[in-house]
Structures are given as structure tokens and as C-alpha cells.
Amino acid sequence: MGSQNSVRVRFAPSPTGPLHMGGVRTALFNYLFARQKKGAFVLRIEDTDQTRYVKGAENYIIESLRWCGLEFDEGPVQGGAFGPYRQSERKEQYREFADLLVEKGHAYYAFDTAEDLDKARKEAESQGQTFSYGTGSRLSMSNSLSLSDEEVKQKLEAGEPSVIRFKMPDEVVDVEDEDMIRGKVSFKTSDLDDKVLFKADGMPTYHLANVVDDHLMEITHVIRGEEWLPSMPLHVLLYKAFGWDKPVFAHLPLILKPQGKGKLSKRDGDKLGFPVFPLKWTDPESGEVAAGYREDGYFPDAFINMLALLGWNPGTEQELFSKEELIDAFSFDRVNKAGARFDPEKARWFNHQYLMKRSDEELAGLFGPFLIEKGITPPAVDFLSRIVALVKERVSFVHELWDQSFFFFVAPESYDSKVAKKRWKGDVPAFMGKLAVFFKDWNGEWKAEALKEEVSSMIKAGELNFGAVMNSLRLAMVGGSFGPDLFTIIEMLGQDEVVSRIEKAVDELGG
RNA sequence: GGUCCCUUCGUCUAGUGGUUAGGACGCCAGGUUUUCAUCCUGGAAACAGGAGUUCGAUUCUCCUAGGGACUGCCA
User: How far is the CA of A314 from the C1' of B55 (A)?
Assistant: First the structure.
């Protein structure tokens, strides 16, 4: 076992495309556990299937985890004492372990072609059954158990393609394991088949590679998705066959789609308009683009917080957790067994909470590029920060700041007709003209409070409807019935701009 | 079909034999606000069904139903 029993966990994705948010959550739970136990978090790339390799996927995975703030201690980029960290680079070692199993009588060679297997499956299917390569059928297939030693030797020497299969015990035994999340889980070997461990192309399958590497890398806890639960007994048997200590397993519940049946997929995101991937991904083959949380404006800590609460809860009413708090509070016995439906609305809410926590200065800095995109030169940081402070509680994303604050940068181009119809009538238009003059002639300090006081007394003196005037004035300033405190806007806009906007409104809406 | 896993408000969930079944998101209503948003208050909303065990089941057991995963020389 590992030196001084320290915890070592790994996240072992396959570089077959962008990392799904479910994968990110798996990485997160591994990370939280490792950090809490002062252990190591390892990234291992499971690229034993050359046919499914997708260019850029590994990079994407690494960048995604970095964006999420899940830094690992060992991995393909920075290396470590247990490298290499790509299975393709560990290729040589697997054959010898597979052979070892054959020697020990726990595995055997099989020569059946893909066509043979296909045929067997179809045949079984036509009889309403499912073909299983295992104790009941292996003697009727082509392998080192059914063939004579001579035949086997001949085939092997002739270089005939062959795979190595695990030999399930002939006697029925119960394979049990204590899962950190599910407790006791048990399978009967009679229900299991002889899985391929080593492929004809010279590469191991996931099952062999994962067990060998987890052992060699001294992984103490295997934390992975529930989709691996059915192969748990095979892995347990593999550890036993090798005579190795097995790690502790934890199978995480799945993340389900917001509506309908099944697990969350890319299609759900397209359909309901939310990302399924941490980062934007452009498929190198088709050029198809998939949205990412980062590009959609989510903060990484909000994303992580939301993910952590999907399947785990602290048992208290706290919902907002920093990464450090998560590390501290996380526990497998508070991870749910049932799959969790993803709720895009709540994801939004999390982001809103995190946006509110950000300082105005930081948000102003993030807002700048959006202004430039609109052709506006961002004002000084302290001024932009004041604007952000006024509107940030109305948005969930930085990019939404524009819709709530555009009027600080440009005069409204149109006026909400419903508001105009309701407010801009009677004595109001004429009064607006007076207001323009009033503001123009104002000699005092240009401050919200003083201006408000003056305008209020003017309204009273003229016996006008307070709401109608205020809303009309707002209409002139922002173009509608929204936005922060009116006189704060007026103060920030400045005397000339305010006068010009009122004149423009009188011009367009009538005076 | 087979194997395994799962089942509390629409959703995420608390609950570990006796609770008015709690919180959050969303939704609705009222209040605050010159508007909108925030905020505050309130509201509707759940133990899948059936048998047991028990003085008493959301909680324990079994069955049924439903959901999910797996069932590749993919991971």
C-alpha cells in the first residue's frame, strides 16, 4: 500500500471529447476528498482506445479543471513520481500483467473474430436471449480453454489476432464490496461475463489498465460515476487475482436532465439553452460548437458550488460555499445515492449570489471589455464601479450589466410607449420643459439629494402628480420604467447630459 | 430481456420510530420603493403504492410500480 497510508485519488477521463459537467463533478469530489485528507489528486488520461482519440480533448480537460480551480498534484503536464500519466505511454507494462493473469489461470486467450462474436450475439438474440461470453459459453468459442494446447500454441505463433479475457470462476461466488456511498453492494459471479482485458491491437481495455494503474499509482480511493458500478465486481476480482489490496470505491450518483428521462446530455443544453460543458468546445471534425459555462459568464467558484450541491449536501442550511469551505465540509456519507436532476435556474441563482459577492471594482474590470465591444470607451474605474454598484443586484451575469446600465453611456434611442402613454400626459409634458430649464440654470452643487429636494418642491408647488413626473423624468433619462434611483442617475449623468436628454424627450414625445 | 443501483414539495434536499415533515430554487400574494430589481412578510407545493414489524411508521423488512446505469476487442 501507499507509504504512510496517505490518501491518493485520481481523476481518469478519456480524451474523447469535451469534459461533461458530470465529469467535472467527479473530478471535484475527488479533489475535495484529496484536499481534506491532505492527500494527492492525480490526473490520469485514459487513452487506450486509439480509435476514439480526439485531438485537443486532453488539453480541454486540463484547461477545464484549471478554470474550475481544481489543481492536481500529479498529471501528464507536471509529471510526478508515478508517471507517465497517459495510459498510451504506459502501454508496455499492461501486456505483462495480462500474461501474468493467464499464467495464474485467471485469464485466457481468445481468438474469436468480431464477426464470430457478432454472429453469436445475433443468434442468441433471435432466440430472445442475450449472448454472454462466460462460464456457460466459453467452451463453445475459440479460446485457450476450448482448444488444445497444440492449437493454441500454433495460433499464437502464427500471429493470429487474439485477446485476453478474464476467466470468471466456474463456481458461483458472491462478490461484495463496501461502497463509501452505497454501503454493501453485491454481485454473483454467475451473472458476470469474461471481459476482454487485453485487446488485439496491443492495448489493454479500461478494466485492466485502470486496475493496474490504480495499483501502481497507489491509488487508495476510486471515486467515479455510477455508470461504473456494474464493473465493480470485475475490478474487485482483478485485484484479488493479482493478489493486490483493492482501493475503497465510491460510486457517485448521475446528473440527470432537467426534464424528461435519462442522464444529462449535450442535447438538453442545446434544447433548454444552458451549457453542459465547462468550456466552449469546437469539434475538430464537424466544427460544431458547444457552449461552455466559462463563456456563458459563469464564475468558476459559482459553477463548482452548484456542482457540489448536486448530490451532496452539508446537512445544514448553508448553500454558499467557498472552495475551502467545501473541502472542510465535504463527506461521502452525505452524498446521495439517487441521481440528481440538473436545474439551470438554480445554476443562474448561484451565479447571481457570487456576482453579488464580487467587489464593484472587480466587476467593473470584467465589464470593461463588454463596453468596448459596444464601441464605448470604459470610464475611469471608480466611476464604472459606482455604476456597477447601482445595478449589480439586478443581474446574474456580467454581460447582463449592459442591459441594466446602458443609459449611463448612451442616451435612450427610444421610449417605452406604454410608460409614455401612462405618464407623459396632462400637465406633465409642459412641466418637463420647465424642468429642462431648471436643470440648465442650476447653479448649486450637482448632487442627487439637493436636486431631488428642489424638484420635489417644484412638483408640489405645481400641484402635479409626483409619480407621473418622476416616471416621465425617468423615461427621459433611461427610456423606460426601470433602473436605480433616479436622482443618482441624474447626478452621475451630469448637468449637460440631463438637460439634453429632457430636451430630446420633449422633442420626441411632445411638450 | 438479464444484472445492479435508486425512490420526501415541479427541482435540489433535511429528516435516521412519535415533527404543525424543515430549508433552498422556481412560482403566487402582500409590504417597502418615484420605476424596475433587491429586500421583508406570507402562500400553494412532497413522504410512489401495498403488505408486514411495532403502542406508533417518511424512517425497519418484503412485494409491486416507477426511474436510472450497465449488458463492446468504448471508457
Answer: 35
CA of A36 to C1' of B4 (A): 31
pTM of the model: 0.94
Helix residue ranges, H only, A392-447 = 401-405, 417-423, 428-441
CA angle A319, A299, A370 (to 5 degrees): 140
Domain boundaries, chain A: 3-75+210-256, 92-198, 266-357, 359-408, 411-511
Nearest Cα neighbor of A435 from A450, A411, A455 is A455
What is the rounded distance in angstroms from the CA atom of residue A315 to the CA atom of residue A174? 35
CATH architecture of A92-198: Alpha-Beta Complex (3.90)
Among A463, A393, A451, A396, which Cα is nearest to A427's? Answer: A463
Q: Which residues of A are catalytic?
A: 266
Instruction: Classify domain A3-75+210-256 at the CATH class level.
Output: alpha beta
The domain made up of A266-357 is a member of CATH 3.40.50.1000: no
The predicted-structure confidence for A302-315, as pLDDT tens digits, reads as follows: 999 999 999 999 99
Domain covering A411-511 assigned CATH 1.10.3210.10 in the classification: no
Q: Quote the cell numbers at residue A222.
A: 476510486
Quick: pLDDT tens for A7-41: 999 999 999 999 999 999 999 999 999 999 999 99
**d(Cα A189, Cα A238) in Å, to the nearest integer?**
13
Buried b (16+ CB within 10 A) or exposed e, A3-17: eeeebbbbbbbbbeb
For residue A462, which phi and psi values (nearest 5 degrees)?
Answer: -85, 0
Which bases of strand B sit closer than 7 A to a protein CB?
Answer: 1-8, 10-15, 22-26, 34-38, 67-75
Separation between Cα atoms, residue A302 and residue A358, nearest integer Å: 11
